[in-house]
Amino acid sequence: MAALDVQLFGTFSVRRDDRELAHFGGAKMQELFSYLLLHTDRRHHRESLAATLWADTPTAQARKNLRQTLWQLQTTLAETVAPDRPAVVAVESDWVFVDTQADLTTDVELFERAASSVQGVPGRDLDAAAAARLRDAVGLYRGDLLADWYQDWCIYRREWLQQRFLAMIDKLMAYCEVHAEYESAIDFGERVLLYDRARETTHYKLMRLRALAGDRTGSLRQFERCVAALHAELAVRPARATVALHEQIRDDRPLTGTSTAHDVDQSVPETPPPHADVSRYLQQLGLFLLDLQRQVQHDLQASHLGSHHRN
Fold first, then answer.
1. What number is the average pLDDT over the span 283-293?
2. How many other CB atoms are there within 10 angstroms of residue 161's CB atom?
3. Phi, psi (rounded to 5 degrees) for 91
4. Which of 77, 92, 160, 215 could be a cystine partner for 210, CB 3.0 to 4.6 Å?
5. Who's near 195: CB < 8 A, 6+ residues apart?
6. Checking phi first, is residue 82 left (phi over 0); if not, alpha (psi -120 to 50) or beta?
């Protein structure tokens, strides 16, 4: 049997030989499988899995739901994996994890591998092979991670992957500018604006790229798009550097320098912070709000009693 190919960008699907396997039904089974595939760096305790995936369910019922869903997932995977190959999901008495030796790949894994290979390298310094890897990686990004899912753990990872995707495109835009591949760079920039229409750095780069490509009118219109997006989304005006570039292009003065000076994705860590840290923060915030609520109730009661005694 060929390896399984799991798509997590856009909508969930499992394929073999470019054919989708339709029997991966069941929302919770898909969620459990996706969660495990996105956290292959560690083993997961049953208690933690149950609490994460069935957060609003009583503990005993959550454990039962996990047992049933694990059985469904293992049964389904057993039908799709050769019997002489390792099971994709290993289940022990207290632990559950994905066997990294299993015949399985995910688009997210390939995407992150490509991003890590150029971590900290400015786009202008990429070689042709690295640029080709990035092109392939952004091609895997068919949409945001599990776009129709709204679980907390998924939303958190989705935002991080989207920021990584935008940083990878920034690198490709810088690479394309240095190599005078202006049309490709403009296509990449327009793709960024589909996700964040008010991303001023991208508007700035597109203004330069259109001007370098000989499209002065398009560059000036790009500035107008930037002004409109910033006003609508953030109620702000463009930065001085963006205005200065607009004036430079408007006055038909030659462009100097490069827009690739700050294209290293230093703001996007190579790995996301542990989900447990976010959960711990949210728990602490919840306790703080509960204490605040109790204090407010106490103050209101004291105020009411004081008013009663005065009367």
1. 49
2. 22
3. -125, 120
4. 215
5. 162, 165, 166
6. beta
pLDDT value of position 281: 45
Q: What is the pLDDT of residue 16?
A: 84
Tokens encoding 298:
């106490």
Task: State pTM to two decimals.
Answer: 0.79
CB neighbour list of residue 23: distance below 8 Å, 6 or more residues apart: 76, 79
3-class secondary structure, 24: coil
Question: Pick from 196, 144, 152: which is nearest to 170 by CA?
Answer: 196
36 within 8 A of 135, measured Cβ to Cβ? no
Length, in residues, of the chain:
311
Specify the pLDDT at position 86.
77
Question: Do 33 and 108 meet the contact criterion of CB atoms below 8 Å apart?
Answer: no
Helix axes 200-212, 216-234, angle to 10 degrees: 170
Q: Nearest to residue 63, comparing CAs of 77, 48, 76, 43?
A: 48
Residue 206 Cα distances to 36, 56, 59, 166, 292, angstroms: 39, 46, 53, 14, 49
Contact at 8 Å (CB) between 54 and 62?
yes
